[in-house]
Amino acid sequence: MSFDPILSRRFGTPGSHTIDFYEREDRGYQAARKALGMTAAQVIDEVKKSELRGRGGAGFPCGQKWGFVPAPKDVPGPRYLVVNADESEPGTFKDRALLWYTPHAMLEGAIIAAHAIGAESCYVYIRGEFAREAVRVGEAVREAYAKGYFGRNVFGTGRRIEMTVHRGAGAYICGEETGLLSSLEGGRGYPKIKPPFPAVKGLFGQPTIVNNVETLACVPLILDRGAEWFKSIGTPGGTGPKLYCVSGHVERPGLFEFPCGVNLRALLGAAGGVWKGRRLKAVIPGGSSAKILRADETDVAMDFASLQKAGTMLGSAGVIVLDETTCMVNALWNVLRFFHHESCGQCTPCREGTGWIEKLVGRIERGGGKQGDLDTLLDVAANMQGTTVCVLSDAAAWPAESYTLKFRDEFEEHIRRKGCPFKKESAMAGALA
Ligand SMILES: Cc1cc2nc3c(=O)[nH]c(=O)nc-3n(C[C@H](O)[C@H](O)[C@H](O)COP(=O)(O)O)c2cc1C
Ligand code: SF4
């Protein structure tokens, strides 16, 4: 399957991260110049028409979200634009590459978004572990300031847009937008109940748009080449080019770019297929929060609507492939350890629930499982959904439910045999490492 990459076309090209390269080779900052000559409503309208959906996880329509920012007469005071560069979902590594190879694409998208929502202050909230990317993004911001693309008089238009890079401290929950904003304000990264949504009441209590790095990297393309061009790529269930992170038991794991909605089997083919000549057992299509697909469910388009119809989600497009030797109990235990560790502890169903289900699944894997454990597991998982401040709790319950329901015989066999019938080296620990 051939597709000329767009977002990733410069990945690996020396110098692609510099402003000179971006302006010389990729029409850099032309789209932002054009956008600043348009009204905010016109920019929002173009992004709405493109049907760009957020690449951070929830897949919310980008232009529509920008349109939720209230008019200054209704809510006076500053507006903020925040770039979510906290990328921590296991199996996801696309934003890191965008930050490293083409930071100016994201910065240009941020200028356009800031103009559209009337923000004078922007922040990039970057994952603590992304030390070298933070340095590179900082350099890119300085380059853009030096050319007058940020500051008090952006492109000589009299418009003020400032950009600050803020480093996180390595907590997964700070990727959740309200947790991120709490952290950015200087507090603990505790999520807040929505509504009010950040678009109405966000950073420092003011209207705020939080957008993912890849979402913003798509925005200059839309302004430059037009919404119709963007929409002509992909499917009605997800428009535009899309980065997919393929890891686990494939011959050639890595980052792949295709039109949104590429068939999952074709994507696996591009990654060289299942490794070592083995058969496919299951695929996690959208990061560790996503419900798992059995091998016979993988003939599916990798877009927002199709995966939702298939009972799962595109999420962060972290595609984790599991071969026939994988123990699904061990795989689930691995995922649940992560969520238990990352729960911020504010809500009882999440704080206690993530611990309970992790312990239950660990016990089954180690041979101490009892009759009734699976019913308890499903009962706890059901009570963890829709009852908490943010969806981390749901995100832990979804794999717990889907692995148990789709591979129930394996869980029961563990309980019957009082141990794991698979060899230890089959554990998904290797796939997620
Ligand atoms: C537990 C949790 C972790 C998240 N982590 C990230 C993340 O690392 N990066 C990201 O862009 N969005 C993450 N999100 C989604 C954000 O809350 C938010 O929806 C997103 O940044 C919005 O950007 P978009 O509309 O451009 O996708 C996370 C959500 C949850 C519930
Ligand atoms: S659901 Fe979990 S992570 Fe989210 S706020 Fe509640 S305790 Fe924290």
Number of strands: 12
CATH topology descriptor of the largest domain: Rossmann fold
Task: Tell me the series of helices and strands, N- to C-terminal.
Answer: HHHHEHHEHEEHEHHEEEEHEEHEHHHHHH
Q: Unreliable segments (pLDDT under 50, ≥5 consecutive)? A: none
Described by the principal axes of the CA atoms, the overall outline is globular
How far apart are the termini? 28 Å
> What is the correct CATH architecture of the largest domain?
3-Layer(aba) Sandwich
Question: How would you sum up the major sheet?
Answer: 5 strands, mixed
Describe this structure in words.
With about 425 residues, the protein is an alpha/beta fold. The protein has 3 domains: about 20-225, Rossmann fold (3-Layer(aba) Sandwich), CATH 3.40.50; about 240-325, Ubiquitin-like (UB roll), CATH 3.10.20.600; about 330-430, de novo design (two linked rop proteins) (Up-down Bundle), CATH 1.20.1440. It contains 18 helices and 12 strands. It has a 5-stranded mixed β-sheet with strand order 3-4-2-1-5. Strands 9-8-12-10-11 form a 5-stranded mixed β-sheet. Strand 3 and strand 4 form a beta hairpin. Helix 15 (about 375-385) runs antiparallel to helix 16. The radius of gyration is 22 Å and the shape is globular. The model has no long low-confidence stretch (mean pLDDT about 95). Bound molecules: flavin mononucleotide and iron/sulfur cluster. Iron/sulfur cluster binds near residues 173, 351 and 392.
